[in-house]
Specification:
9 helices; binds NADP nicotinamide-adenine-dinucleotide phosphate
Length: 242
Amino acid sequence: MLFEGKVAIVTGGSRGIGRAIVQALAGEGARVAFTYAQNKALADEVANGDTVIGFQADVTKFDQAKDIVKQVKERFGRIDILVNNAGITRDKLIAMMSEKDWDDVIDTNLKGAFNITKPVVGAMLRQRSGTILNITSISGIVGMAGQANYSSSKAGMIGFTKALAKELAKANITVNALALGFVETDMTAVLNGEYRTKALAQIPLGRFGKAEEMAQVALFMLSPTASYMTGQVLQVDGGLAM
Ligand code: NAP
């Protein structure tokens, strides 16, 4: 098994892409701790109480993120993999966007990544090994109308990825980003009618991606196969933003 003996933390693992990544890592032998915000019932479907554990924690709160990392170290003894996946949208045109819409998205998607990465890096530096994967979006590369907050947060994650990759390479810690297009999850379930038809028309592969397909790419990026890869942003978007 590809991840036998490895310990992973995945933020936002109760649903969607995070859930698929948790299940793929666990299927390859990793012990996985995942976080979720509110939905305990969904988290309980993913956890097994032994090698896959769910923690209710708000990634926007530094102390909660730090505490989760402490608990994972106590329970599993090490941390080899971090996937910064938890994310939200609050789409509005800038004229309609409230300060709260802006803050919520930046706090969850960008500051949330900082909050959990900082304590995880502490553990990885002591081990002198680790792999971090940041789930970003093509919205952070090309910009999307109605997503000034989200595009900014996801572009920020790309800068975060590259800065950390340079900072941590000497300690044998790799940091990469996976930039996704449209993926079938709760996040995109709200996109209906004309918007969905227009989006589909722009995707060369003619469909939204599946969470399981994204998880397979994440597995590759987290695996020893990708050990010489750092500071990279891999686009998996059906050809949308080529
Ligand atoms: P999703 O189905 O809406 O799931 C979001 C997950 O994040 C849930 O587990 C949720 O927990 C958790 N979460 C939200 N806020 C949190 C917080 N403050 N603290 C801790 N956990 C929190 O999302 P998704 O579509 O799978 O997206 C996953 C990632 O991929 C996000 O970063 C997103 O920006 C990115 N992405 C998605 C798409 C897409 O088309 N779906 C495209 C590009 C990039 P609860 O269940 O408890 O709410």
